[in-house]
Amino acid sequence: MSHSTKVSHLSGSEKVTYRISGKVHYGRYFSAALIFLGLALIVRAFWVGHIRWELVGDYLFGPSIINGIINTLILTAAAMVVGIVLGLAAALMTLSQNPVLNLSARAYIMVFRSVPVLLQLLIWYNLGLVFPTIGIPGLFSVPTTDVVTPFIASLLAFGIMQGSYTSEVIRAGLLSVSRGQSEAATAIGMTRMQSLRRIIIPQAMVVIIPPIGNEVIGMVKYTSIASIIQYKDVIYSAQTIYYTNGRVIELLMVCAFWYLLVVIVLSILQRYVENYFGRHHKR
Amino acid sequence: MTFTVEIRDLQKHYGTFHALRGVSLEIGQGEVVCIIGPSGSGKSTLLRCINQLETPNAGIVRVNGDIIGYRLEGDELHALPDRSLAQQRSRIGMVFQQFNLFAHKTALENVMEGPVIVRRIAQSEARQRGLELLERVGLADKADSYPAQLSGGQQQRVAIARAMAMDPVLLLFDEPTSALDPELVSEVLQTMRELTKSGLTMIVVTHELGFARDVADRIVFMDQGQIVEAGDARDLLINPRHPRTQEFLAAVRSH
Ligand SMILES: Nc1ncnc2c1ncn2[C@@H]1O[C@H](COP(=O)(O)OP(=O)(O)OP(=O)(O)O)[C@@H](O)[C@H]1O
Ligand SMILES: [Mg+2]
Q1: What is the domain partition of chain A in residue ranges?
Q2: What gap in Å lies between CA A238 and CA A243, rounded to an integer?
Q3: Per-residue pLDDT for A12 more than 80?
Q4: Domain spanning A57-282: CATH 1.10.3720.10
Q5: What global pTM score does this model have?
């Protein structure tokens, strides 16, 4: 696309006109052609391959698949809530003067960032092997397996893991707000809680929201690991179906479609939320 | 006679550094005191110890008779809980060198924040009062602007309105014009001049000797964590007695 524009200016008393030609981006055309070719090959491969696409369409909105994706979303949301609450608490603890709180928060972050989430999932789920019953001695006690369902085990594993990461994000966010802001809040008579809630956290959000948005998107996909301990997420539902009818790839494509859709929707939401929290920074 | 501010033998250490070495000062109701002194002499530290942004290591501060941060029982001082200290601070306004306006709030919201959150005054009432105060500092038309949209001088005037919104018994200014471009200094000083007419008690750390001469009842000269000399504003500027004061004034004026 070589476009040209005319520019006039006065040189002395004479009017001079130049012609400007835009840059020609050969690289763009070349890379576009290459990628298009690649895509075409992939699409062809899947088209002639052993996939019955009409089955993918049939299963897409099947009740157990829909139920599965809903369970995926529930676990994602619940784990993120646990993660953010724990993360905020741990972040405040690492920033506090109290050495006990400080050290416990650091230990928590260290431990749960080190242990793989799959391992945590299995440990929580098999807690019944160590503690057959849980409760308050003398008051009540229930079988551990009744309490630590696949959902609870996943929630604990993902929520606690997420908290250890989110605490670092929140900590960085809180530290990004200049000290003068909290001093001004203190000087007008706010308590530490009031200043956190009204002044520090809202400003820290600008820094905290983008990485948390990414973590939510990451969590959507992380939760698929929970199918290992029989949590009925979308992958578990797909597997249950293909164990009986053998349409493995079709059902995996169904899962891929749903993950793609959810992540696209979340990415759009993320943009809105980021703009909302960043609004006072614009002129 | 009771003083609005009574500072007794204040001491502050930062690690091994002795930033305040026994500062005592009394300030009467409605008095305007300017504090001058070289960099690092402890001026900011003194102001910050008055409203306990820093906790002094020894000595007490009374404002309107109340000991800041402590409750006296018999002859023992008990540290106040956070909430009570916050209430005490809410009557002591502070204006910072770097303005420190709440960046995510408009000028009006900045002024309303204290009354609404700390004093629990109704929004509508706080809004009206806030608009009046912005009008008073000449910024009625900037009520809906965010700090980033305001000049330094305008931000500092909003900060003054924010401090005034709490009906302070005492206003502390820490070099309120030092971060401003020269052409913006006078608008802030003018706003402060207006305030002195309303009978507020003010402590102003400043390098503006002209301002100090015109509005201060007293000038305090600090050096190395101590008050070296204090006295009537004009007297001290014209006839400084202590050689360190003379040196300092000469240095400031030669600029
Ligand atoms: N948080 C702190 N930690 C360690 N030292 C400090 C701290 N705050 C202040 N100081 C030291 O205490 C001394 C007094 O500082 P202060 O800020 O009160 O001086 P100042 O008179 O306000 O100076 P300036 O005119 O530069 O503002 C300085 O030497 C400073 O380095
Ligand atoms: Mg200072």
Answers
A1: 57-282
A2: 9
A3: no
A4: yes
A5: 0.83
